[in-house]
Write a structure and sequence with these properties.
single chain, eight-stranded parallel barrel, 75 strands
């Protein structure tokens, strides 16, 4: 049973991480693995091409695009066809269980640096099965995708020998037809096996198969490429680090007999090997660029000597590997924090700095060095762009397919379509990623500026953001100030014709600039053709997508478009969001209606339902022939869901002929049926088919109850009423008790909540709940105790602010005012200010002290660490206390002497001790059940009962022994507390004892800590209880004590109140080598500390007003009351939001709505009152009684006018405008040319 403890007022607020529903193993069936591929191939035929019913999740529907180079638009013009390197990303995608299949998790991998990748080898995909979403996005960019046979090192075992033997004997044309039908672009082999006893006969047979397969498939798929790890040579021997030579040249293949391109092992870095490989390739008439010099990102290989500085001198390409389950860019994206958006931003920074450059601009002065760092702060790395050009696939006949991009990455925390929010559910589907800017980010003060001098030192910047989108869940943001700067967007090769319509859509969220679209053509690539799209006098409007169109005329007719750039001049604090760039020729037909093969409801819960849909498109292709979306006049498919009695919801889009639905919003107390549907959208995105609906599914037949509970207050005062309830509105009733020191002080039976009028004593209270919970998939009735769930704190330390009342001009409901008149906002709150102990925020960074300063020389000594902690949030595996040396080598810098992790989904805290420093060390694991409640203070004590030879751990929570869960030593395990002691000899002299130290694949703490104490003895439960509130410096065994009441020194260290040990909050700065880092102190961020410890930290409440398009004339406020005076210059309907914040939390309330009328010049005040604008279904009605000439215009939210009517009124009259589609609209009413009112409506 999971717990959440949140500040709630009148509604249920669930963190987004708890709302996410994700891909489960039973949702999509892969069908087979690598070992079965050869057998599947033998039984497959074009006449019967089906593997299983989920095939459409694995069939590419995007025809591979052709890439091109153009020296005139590349950054480094010294790179030619002969030395422009390729790059093989032989990397896993996302996580092994999901790979690139559509998911309900926003923080999924959506790689986007395609211009610098020439082949993606999906390392955690077996032979013959690759998710269509990865294929589709790669094919849009002209990148082949292959999967990998993960053959173990050593002698070839029976199962793999059989698999490879059967594959080598497969019918070549059948294999080519299979690859062509599914859209797979190669076979990859982790070939480090020995075929010694077969003298290489099997290897040579595979080579022959590859040669013939290449010949059979290249006519259909020119980007097809097999890959062979150069470990096994053609004699069947394991023979690394020899380069291309006579023992493997046939595996590579001479011209006309190409077999598989080679991935060199990691010790290629010598002149003789590289030059010999270049020479051998010339001898067999092959390009040496088809050889990949391997880079081991995980192990930092080549470990010695030159890497990039040597490789740049040879026309040999780049092969990235690392690692087995997740790639290194994605796996360690938590280096800046565990928040999903922070992790996505970190992943983006890592890839941009690696591929483009450390400056995130391919134009830079960074010299090529030998670094293999790939962290987010890798600023001194020249990047792959120093050795290869950015390729583009934007070169096709616009009469066949338009060019359209919405700058969408393929994931989001919501889903927008046409600039309108369709749902707020997290999602990821990289297959719908748009064509993205060719360069990341080529800014220069002049067009095609290629030198570092052309890049302003403090100019504009660009990034992907996930807070808005025209389509999808992300877009590009351009921001900053500059006098003149170009952002080079797209390398293209489009033949333009008169009448082609170019659309540019954007949103100015702040600042100003003059902006123009700039085009250059191949015949005059340096000649700028500029078309203004934004003027510095245009008003910023964060709610409005602005559309600008350019119709190609005689100046561009017959020209080949080579470059698209955005020129910005006189930009001041610009905050520009890009929504669309497109080139459309003529009109395109609506596609036919999809034909549904199957729909399924997969999961039902309070957060919504999961489902899937499989469909086909009517087409004339023969069985077993590939059919692409362009063949059926389709750009993408909309995925719909409809609960009985409700309107359809657009949940997302897909390019596959199958789709997934995650967390579809449903009324859990409404009708019990739901159905899933799909519609096909035309190539120009302007038309669509009717929705094809599947059958009805029962929502609640197999409902997955949530057993989470919530409290409506996170800080509770004496005698203050509060409520604790189930989060799930469908949850069965239970029996509730609140106990204090063993006595029941409140109860409620057979209810879904307990309402408590107040508790008068400060302290900790247990919640005991008897009711149904899910255990091992079954609902069972049991008692669950939540220790210390309720905390009553004194009035003196302050409370979470609360807004009791919010008014505008003394009204709690909507008001009407005239433009430029003053609006007075007022609020009434409650007592929330106070004073108490001071702590420091961890901010998902470490707080540590050197063990040498604590007198520790090994971890078999007795010691105890105690501190208060209040978590703001918990995610995944959260590190609590660790002891390790971050500066030593991998993987010891990740293991350390001991580490401990808390899993909030299970409530289990696990402590791991290591017996020795090296690999293969026995490990001792003890686990306890702990209730860490976000927003509540917990006293944590880890006590080590060392005797000099061995040790044994104990955990105290709030002064009591934590409930022991189970333990494990090597392959032995048991329940409860382990009675055995352990020799914890893993030790490094430079160890740091860290709170929130974090480690690989786990999160540091998002928390506040207070009163950190270190004892040079094993303390008892009674002593742990005393440590909770004692401020004495003479407690027995107290070696160090940091209460944070005194500021840190100039070096950011806190000096202990006992002894000389220094503790610091800091950051793990990345060093050289995998995982190597050092703890660098930084300035601490202070916060209110434990409510149960005395101190002098002042808790003050501040008021923040958010009023779009208003001028805040004045404002003031406290925790108890406050005011703000606003003015609106323009007519419209507006909301005002107030947030009260202090160190304990915040409260927010929004006033709806302030109706602002136009300046009444020429119209008396009664006229506005005599006018009504409202909507009934899909009709907008305008009722007016005052005579005059009126113009009623209706706009979509993207600014397009969809209806207009002019009317001359002599008396009372009603005007009706019918709208053809549901959606959100803006109605503007003018009288005699002056705006009277602007109103936003939802038409259903």
């Amino acid at each position: 049973m999971r717990r959440i403890h949140l500040l709630l007022f009148g509604c249920c607020l669930i963190p987004s991480t708890l709302m996410a529903q994700e891909l489960k193993s039973n949702y999509i069936q892969w069908g087979f693995d690598s070992h079965q591929f050869a057998n599947k191939l033998s039984s497959w035929s074009k006449a019967n091409p089906t593997i299983n019913e989920d095939d459409n999740f694995f069939i590419s529907r995007v025809r591979p695009k052709t890439r091109f180079r153009n020296v005139d638009t590349q950054v480094r013009q010294d790179l030619t066809d002969a030395n422009d390197k390729k790059l093989l990303a032989w990397l896993p995608w996302n996580v092994p269980s999901k790979n690139a299949l559509p998911d309900g998790v926003f923080d999924s991998e959506v790689f986007s640096m395609w211009p610098y990748v020439t082949h993606w080898g999906d390392w955690n995909c077996g032979l013959g099965r690759i998710p269509a979403s990865l294929l589709d996005v790669a094919h849009k960019n002209g990148v082949p995708v292959s999967s990998v046979a993960g053959i173990p090192w050593g002698g070839l075992k029976g199962d793999w020998r059989t698999t490879l033997n059967n594959l080598s004997n497969a019918n070549v044309q059948n294999a080519a037809d299979f690859m062509n039908y599914f859209g797979y672009d190669g076979l990859g082999y982790n070939s480090e096996f020995s075929d010694y006893f077969g003298s290489g006969r099997l290897v040579r047979a595979l080579k022959d198969f590859h040669v013939n397969l290449n010949k059979a498939i290249k006519p259909y798929n020119p980007i097809y490429e097999n890959l062979w790890y150069d470990g096994t040579n053609e004699r069947g021997n394991i023979d690394f680090d020899k380069g291309l030579n006579d023992n493997n040249k046939n595996l590579f293949g001479a011209k006309g007999s190409e077999a598989a391109n080679l991935f060199f092992n990691y010790n290629w870095n010598s002149d003789w090997l590289l030059q010999g490989s270049v020479d051998k390739a010339a001898e067999i008439e092959r390009s040496p660029l088809d050889l990949y010099a391997g880079i081991n990102m995980q192990g930092g290989e080549p470990r010695h000597g030159s890497r990039w500085t040597l490789l740049k001198n040879y026309p040999i390409s780049i092969g990235l590997w690392g690692a087995h389950s997740q790639n290194m860019f994605f796996e360690s994206r938590g280096e800046k924090g565990s928040d999903p958006e922070t992790q996505q931003r970190t992943y983006m920074l890592r890839t941009e700095r690696w591929f483009s450059s450390g400056s995130r601009n391919p134009v830079n002065s960074i010299a090529i060095n030998n670094s293999l760092n790939y962290n987010a702060d890798n600023t001194d790395f020249a990047g792959m762009s120093a050795m290869m050009t950015a390729r583009s696939s934007m070169s096709w006949d616009l009469a066949v397919e338009p060019f359209i991009t919405y700058f969408n990455l393929g994931n989001g925390k919501f889903f927008n379509y046409g600039g309108v929010r369709k749902n707020d559910r997290p999602w990821a589907n990289v297959g719908v990623q748009d064509y993205l800017p060719t360069w990341r980010w080529w800014f220069a003060s002049k067009l095609l500026g290629r030198t570092a001098a052309d890049v302003p030192a403090n100019g504009l910047d660009a990034e992907f953001v996930w807070d808005d989108a025209y389509m999808g869940g992300s877009t590009v943001r351009v921001h900053g100030s500059t006098s003149k700067e170009y952002l080079h967007l797209f390398k293209t090769k489009y033949a333009l014709k008169s009448g082609d319509v170019i659309t540019f859509r954007y949103k100015v969220k702040g600042g100003k600039a003059n902006a123009s679209l700039v085009f250059t053509t191949e015949d005059a690539v340096n000649a700028e053709k500029a078309y203004p799209v934004l003027a510095s006098t245009d008003e910023a409007d964060e709610d409005k997508w602005v559309e600008k169109t350019i119709t190609v005329g005689s100046d561009l007719n017959g020209k080949t478009l080579a470059l698209v750039a955005l020129k910005m001049e006189n930009a001041a604090d610009l905050n520009l969001y890009l929504g669309e760039f497109s080139i459309v020729r003529g009109t395109f037909d609506a596609p036919e209606k999809p034909v549904i093969a199957k729909t399924a409801l997969l999961h039902s819960a309070k957060n919504g339902v999961d489902g899937k849909i499989i469909f086909n498109m009517p087409n004339s292709k023969a069985s077993g022939e590939p059919c692409y979306n362009t063949d059926v006049k389709t750009s993408l498919f909309k995925l719909w869901a409809k609960q009985e009695g409700k309107e359809p919801i657009l949940m997302g889009v897909t390019t596959s002929w199958a789709g997934m639905y995650y967390s579809v919003p449903v009324d859990v107390k409404g009708q019990g049926k739901i159905k899933f549907g799909v519609s096909a959208v035309s190539l120009d995105m302007k038309k669509e088919s009717d929705i094809a609906w599947g059958e009805d599914h029962d929502i609640f037949t197999t409902y997955d109850y949530s057993d989470e509970i919530k409290a409506d207050k996170s800080v509770i005062k004496p005698n203050e009423a509060f409520t604790i309830s189930y989060v799930d509105p469908r949850h069965e009733a239970g029996n509730w008790k609140i106990e204090h020191n063993g006595a029941v002080v409140a109860s409620s039976n057979n209810t879904t909540e307990i309402k408590v009028n107040g508790l008068n004593q400060v302290g900790f209270y247990d919640l005991v709940l008897t009711g149904y919970v899910t255990e091992n998939g079954t609902r069972v009735d049991k008692e669950v105790r939540y220790a210390n769930y309720v905390q009553i704190t004194s009035d003196a330390v302050g409370a979470v602010p609360h807004i009791n009342k919010l008014t505008a001009n003394d009204s709690e409901t909507s008001i009407e005012v005239v433009a430029n008149s003053e609006v007075t906002m007022k609020y009434e709150g409650k007592k929330a200010d106070g004073s108490g102990s001071r702590g420091i925020k961890t901010l998902e960074k470490p707080v540590g002290v050197k063990v040498s300063e604590l007198g520790l020389t090994n971890n078999n000594q007795p010691w105890s660490l105690a501190f208060w902690v209040k978590f703001n949030s918990l995610s995944g595996g959260t590190q609590i206390v660790d002891m390790r040396d971050p500066g030593t080598g991998w993987p010891q810098n990740n293991w350390g002497t001991f580490w401990s992790t808390y899993d909030p989904s299970t409530g289990v805290y696990e402590l791991t001790l290591r017996a020795k420093n090296g690999g293969g060390s026995p490990e001792y694991k003890q686990r306890w059940k702990v209730d860490f409640i976000p927003g509540a203070w917990t006293h944590f004590t880890l006590a080590m009962d060392g005797n000099g030879t061995n040790t044994k751990p104990m955990l105290y929570i709030n002064g009591k022994e934590a409930k022991a869960h189970n333990w494990q030593i090597g392959d032995r395990n048991g329940e409860g507390l382990c009675e055995e002691r352990f020799v914890n000899n893993g030790w490094w002299e430079a160890n740091v004892l860290g709170i929130s130290l974090g480690r690989h694949s786990t999160a540091a703490m998002n928390a506040t800590i207070d009163d950190v104490k270190f004892f040079n003895k094993y303390i008892s439960a009674a002593e742990a209880t005393q440590a909770m509130t004692s401020t004495s410096t003479s407690d027995a065994g107290l070696k160090a004590y940091w209460d944070f009441e005194t500021d840190a020194d100039a070096s950011h260290y806190f000096t202990s109140k006992v002894g000389n040990a220094k503790l610091a909050h800091g950051e793990l700065k990345v060093g050289t080598g995998e995982g190597v880092a050092s703890l660098v102190p930084d300035a601490p961020t202070y916060d209110a500390g434990s409510a149960f410890v005395s101190g002098t930290f002042q808790v003050k409440t501040t008021a923040e007003w958010t009023a779009k398009k208003a001028t805040i004339v004045s404002q003031n406020g406290t925790d108890m009351a406050g005011t703000a005076k606003l003015k609106y210059a323009k007519a419209g309907d507006y909301e005002v939001t107030l947030t009260l914040t202090n160190a304990h939390g915040s409260d927010t309330r929004t006033f709806q709505v302030i109706k602002v009328k136009a300046d009444p010049t020429g119209i008396n005040g009664t006229e506005a009152a005599d006018m009504k604008v409202y909507a009934i279904d899909r009709d907008v009605l305008f009722d007016v009684e005052t005579p005059g000439n009126y113009l009623v215009q209706v706009f979509s939210t993207n600014g397009q006018m969809v209806a207009s009517k002019a009317v001359s009124v002599n008396g009372a009259e009603s005007v009706r405008l019918h709208l053809g589609a549901q959606g959100v609209y803006v109605v503007n009413v003018k009288k005699d040319g002056k705006t009277l009112r602007t109103v936003k409506f939802i038409c259903k």
